[in-house]
Design a protein that fits this description.
single chain; alpha+beta
């Protein structure tokens, strides 16, 4: 038998296989099209933050108080400063169903040169909002040197999170 005839004998089997593949593609195409237009499930920033923190993935909090749409609540009534800053969230606590809390403290200088201990407390809630309370304490006595400032922020508007190398969480 020549090679030419061997090829012809496999040709009907190849045709049947191609026809089966085409038929399968045609019958599943509508299902695939519906799957592509199915609505995406909305995942809250809170859920992503919680998952990343409890997975041990590095998370950086980025705070921009002047971007908090509700401004300041209780505490000092001075205008929100136009500053941006961030820090790695290392220690945190979740009160299940209520909030994820973490804080940061550092020494800084006031404009007059007086050193103060700045303590920022963050509470992120499941509705993708956050309360940030910044207290200013004497580094010697830990007594308040001024009234605390409280900011009501939305995640993505005043408080963002950078997760690993993924960048800031945005909707």
């Amino acid at each position: 038998m020549s090679n030419h005839h061997a090829f012809r004998s496999t040709l009907p089997a190849l045709r049947v296989a191609l026809m089966c593949a085409a038929l399968t593609a045609l019958t599943t195409a509508p299902q695939l099209a519906q799957a592509q237009v199915a609505p995406r499930l909305a995942v809250s920033h809170y859920d992503v933050l919680r998952t990343e923190l409890f997975s041990g993935i590095p998370v950086t909090a980025v705070f921009s108080p002047s971007q908090c749409p509700e401004g300041q609540g209780a505490g000092a009534k001075a205008a929100a400063p136009v500053v941006h800053g961030g820090f790695a969230v290392r220690d945190f606590m979740e009160i299940e169903g209520s909030n994820i809390g973490f804080s940061n403290q550092h020494l800084t200088l006031r404009p007059d040169g007086t050193p103060v201990l700045e303590l920022a407390q963050y509470r992120v809630t499941p509705d993708d909002k956050a309360t940030v309370t910044v207290s200013f304490l004497s580094p010697l006595t830990y007594q308040a040197v001024s009234a605390p400032q409280t900011f009501q922020c939305a995640i993505g508007a005043g408080l963002d999170f950078s997760i690993g190398l993924a960048g800031l969480l945005r909707r």
